[in-house]
From TrEMBL:
It comes from Odocoileus virginianus (White-tailed deer). Residues 50-70, 86-128 are annotated as: Disordered. Residues 19-88 form the Histone RNA hairpin-binding protein RNA-binding domain. Belongs to the SLBP family. InterPro entries: SLBP1/SLBP2, SLBP_RNA_bind, SLBP_RNA_bind_sf. This is Oocyte-specific histone RNA stem-loop-binding protein 2-like. Pfam families: SLBP_RNA_bind (PF15247).
Amino acid sequence: MMSVGVSTEPCHVRWELETDATVLQRRQKQIDYGKRTPGYQCFLQQVPKAQRQPGLHPQTPNKNRRYSRRSWDAQIRKWRRALHSWDPPSQPLQVEGCGMDNLLEPTNSTPLDDWLQALEPSENQDED
């Protein structure tokens, strides 16, 4: 005879709830951090709540369900990585003097020369 583990209770009844206030606070902080990202903001704008599908769209982990620390950290990591697919396109940094052209220009000194020059006594010092 084969035994199959089937319960007639709804799933949410079988879950144990997290009761530790410190754990709940830490989890909420991690969730809040994820929700402040540009990717999450774009996700909110592009996908209405009614159109979200589990498995297709990132789903915020349930902070109230009891998980091991390792399991919770893995869920947060997976959620945050999924949110990155919604990040807005990044703009390249335009910093004056930091372009590739400046890297290819020849220089008259090397970092070693600069370092050795810093070690040499200054000509302005009084000699005794």
